[in-house]
Structure formats: C-alpha cells, structure tokens
Design goal:
Blueprint (H helix, E strand, L loop, with lengths): L31 E2 L2 E2 H5 L1 E4 H6 L21 H19 L3 E5 H4 L6 H22 L2 E6 L18 H20 L4 E4 L5 E2 L7 H21 L5 E4 L9 E2 L4 H10 L6 E6 H6 L4 H10 L3 E5 L18 H13 L8 E3 L10 H28 L1 H9 L6 H7 L5 H10 L10 H14 L1
Parallel strand pairs: 3-4, 3-12, 4-5, 5-6, 6-8, 8-10, 10-11, 11-12
Antiparallel strand pairs: 1-2, 7-9
Helix pairs in contact: 3-5, 5-6, 6-7, 10-11, 11-12, 12-16
Family: Belongs to the xylose isomerase family.
InterPro entries: Xyl_isomerase-like_sf, Xylose_isom_bac, Xylose_isomerase
Protein name: xylose isomerase
C-alpha cells in the first residue's frame, strides 16, 4: 500500500513554544476543557471534496494541485487511491471524521445506473478503512450542482425529469451514507434559486423543494437512517438568488412546510459572510430556534466577493462561534468540518497538513477563550442587566402577555420620559480581547 503523505508524520501536540511546523501549538486532544476533552468538544472533520478531489482551478486558471494520484488513469483506481489517502491523512492529523459528496467518492458514470455501480464498488473499501481506523462519516451529501442538467437547479428545476434524476441520486447517496454509519446527511441547494423572475415560477419551485425534502425525510425513515438531516444556508453563488439565503430564511421555509422537526442546519462561516451576517449571528439564530446541527469551518476574504473557503485563522470570529456552540451544549452529533481548501498557490501535498493544523489550532484556542468567557458569566451578566427592566413591573407584564396598548399608555403618562443607557460596545470588545489574549 502506498504512502501518500510520507513527509507528514503523526501530528502531535507540542505547545506554543514548539519549533516544529508539523505539530499542534494549541490543539491537545486530551486536554480537559470543562466537562469534555478538546477532541470531544471539537469533533473535527475533513471535507473530501476540497482535500482530495479539489484541483486548484478557478474561473481564471487551470488546476495547480500536485497530488500523488494525479498520474493514475483508471477512474476507479484513482478513486481508491483517494480513499486510501483520506484515511492516511486523517489518521496522521488525529481527526475522527470526514464528509463527502457522492461524486467525490466514486466517478460519475454515463448513466445513474453506472454511477451507482461505481459507488457500490468503492463502498466496501471505505467500510474496510472505517473498521480498520475507527474514522467515520460526519455527514454525506449528494452533488446536485456540478452536472449540466443541474444548471438551473435540482429540486427547483423547471424540468420534472431533472427533479426525478436528483431524487434518484439523493436516494442512493442517503443509502450509502446510512451503510457507512454516517451521523448526518446534508443537502446543499447550490443551484436551488433563480437568475431572473422573468422566467421563474417561484411558488412552484419552492413548493417542489419542499416536496423533495419531504421525500428525503420519508426515505430516511424507511431505511432506518438515524442521523440528522441538514440544510446548508448560502445566499448566492452560483445562483444570483438562492432560496436557502440564511438561517432565518430556511427556518421560515421549514416552518411553512411543516418540516422544522425533520431538518437542522449545517452553517458555514464563509456563507454567512456572503449573506452579510456575522457567523455568530447565524449560529445564535439556529441555536435559539433549536436547529443548529453542524458547522463548516472556514473563512472568507472580505475583499473578495466570492466563496474563498480559506482555512480558519481569525481567532475573534471563531471564539464567538465556539461561544455559541458552548451555549448550545455542544455540537454533537454534528461537528466542525473543515470545508476549506489550500490556496491555489499552495499546491504541494504537505500544504494540506499545514492548512488543517492551522484550522485545528485556531479552534482549540477559540474553545479555550470561549469556555473561559462563558464560565466567567461576565457577558451574560451584562446582557441580563441591560434587559432587567423586563423582570418586573410593566416589563414583566409585557413579557407575560398581560399588557395591552391601553396599559402602555397609562404607564407612559404616569412616568417620565425614559433615558437610554449605554450599550458599552467598546468595553465589551475589550472584554472579549482579554479572554482571547489570556488563555
């Protein structure tokens, strides 16, 4: 059996004073943070599509990635090599999970039947590697956006034939994920939207997406799939207007179609940026509405208006993300999937290790800072005090639904004009910085 990353050792925690480029400075999997170890809190995963099938191409340039399997001509042999490489890299990183699209695992055939046969051929190897290593599937997904037939959507396509094909593809992908013991299945509606209303029946398209999701949930029940079903928000790109714009948009959609008890959300940092939302905002909305399922950990370049999927290194943003996850009671059965790719100029295999080490260290440091902030109670105490007028008097009546507009008028006539209190934003930014810098 080939070794695909011979220059990458098993990555160990060596601490921030280490001189090694291939070691963790902050991620110590066995370190106790509160009632869990770092490994239990963080539940890291590697995205197969970026790490093993991504080629470094972009709209302006050809592929740049140099990978040990590049010279393998037979598509199935290449797929097998990628599977072997996946488990090697994850074992060396100490990561317990990976995520995939169906077409990442095995090449698409000329027909759905051939594509399914390719999956059936590769699944035994994956099961063998899972049994051998203990590395499992965080979530699977179906690639319903790359092929020409999905140019204007899958479940939202104006073509019933395309809708049917998408359903057949998801059926197989869900069954494969179930067979591999996946803890979730994610549907990213990359092209579920429209370019112009001039040729779009928005009502029918949204109704059809709901019908599609109902079929998916029903089939999950039929095959005994016990993992969570997830949708992933993204506002635009590749479509101009996507129906899964952000957490609140999807939540309203799920409520409208009585699907809010069947699906949670897989929320991505860079997608939140594209929606003009802070990542923490998206997480908090999902947390407060009990639909936070998992996260795709990356970050975007705010000077570039597309989904750059960089490995996370912004400590502030990801500390706030971990704060929401801790407030949620954790992320399981979801996890922290590095839906991130090395830069097009970082084309050597070892760069994959560097990228994941950076991301894992960032989240480890963020976990420590977020945990310390949560344990101190300082932020929640400030918020509680700021809204304390709702704990008694007219505020309590408002909260308990015992006040009407006449009551508010009577109260206002009897009391002085209220004076606003400072929100102390600068003070709270300093507070957050203190916890980030002190851990």
């Amino acid at each position: 059996m080939s070794e695909y990353f011979p220059e990458v050792p098993h990555i160990e925690y060596e601490g921030p004073d280490s001189d090694s480029e291939l070691a963790f400075d902050y991620y110590d999997p066995d370190r106790q943070v509160g009632d869990k170890t770092m490994k239990e809190h963080l539940r890291f995963a590697v995205s197969f599509w970026h790490a093993f099938t991504g080629d470094g191409s972009d709209p302006f340039g050809a592929p740049t990635m140099q990978r040990p399997w590049d010279d393998i001509e037979d598509p199935m042999e290449k797929a097998e090599a990628r599977i072997e490489a996946n488990f090697e890299l994850l074992d060396k990183l100490g990561v317990d999970y990976f995520c995939y699209h169906d077409r990442d695992l095995a090449p698409r055939g000329d027909t759905i039947e051939e594509s399914n046969e390719n999956l059936d051929e590769i699944v035994p190897l994956i099961k063998e590697k899972i049994d051998e290593t203990g590395i499992g599937v965080l979530f699977g997904s179906a690639e319903l956006f790359a092929e020409p037939k999905y140019a204007v959507g899958a479940a939202s396509s104006p073509s019933a034939d395309v809708f049917a094909h998408a359903g057949a593809q998801v059926k197989k992908a869900l069954e494969v994920t179930n067979e591999l013991g996946g803890e979730g299945f994610c549907l990213w509606g990359g092209r579920e939207g429209y370019k112009t209303l001039l040729n779009t029946d928005m009502g029918l398209e949204q109704d059809n997406v709901a019908r599609f999701l109902t079929m998916v949930a029903d089939h999950a029940d039929e095959i005994g799939f016990e993992g969570q079903l997830m949708l992933e928000p993204k506002p635009k790109e590749p479509m101009k207007f996507q129906y899964d714009h952000d957490s609140a948009t999807i939540h309203a959609f799920l409520q409208k179609y009585d699907l809010d008890d069947r699906f949670t959300l897989n929320i991505e940092t860079n997608h939140a940026t594209l929606a003009d939302r802070p990542f923490a905002h998206e997480l908090r909305y999902a947390r407060l509405n009990d639909i936070l399922g998992s996260i795709d950990a990356n970050q975007g370049d705010k000077l570039v208006g597309w989904d750059t999927d960089e490995f996370p290194f912004s400590l502030r943003d990801h500390t706030l993300a971990m704060y929401e996850i801790l407030q949620n009671g954790g992320i399981a059965p979801g996890g922290i999937n590095f839906d991130a790719k090395v830069r097009r100029e970082s084309f050597e295999p070892v760069d994959l290790a560097h990228g994941h080490i950076t991301g894992m260290d960032t989240y480890a440091r963020a976990l420590e800072a977020a945990h310390a902030l949560k344990e101190s109670g300082e932020l929640e105490e400030f918020i509680d005090e700021r809204y304390s007028s709702y704990d008694e008097g007219i505020g309590q009546k408002i909260v308990e639904g015992e006040a009407d507009l006449a009551d508010l008028e009577e109260y206002t006539l009897e009391n002085d004009v209220p004076h606003p209190e400072s929100g102390r934003e600068e003070k709270l930014n300093a507070l957050l910085n203190r916890y980030i810098l002190e851990v």
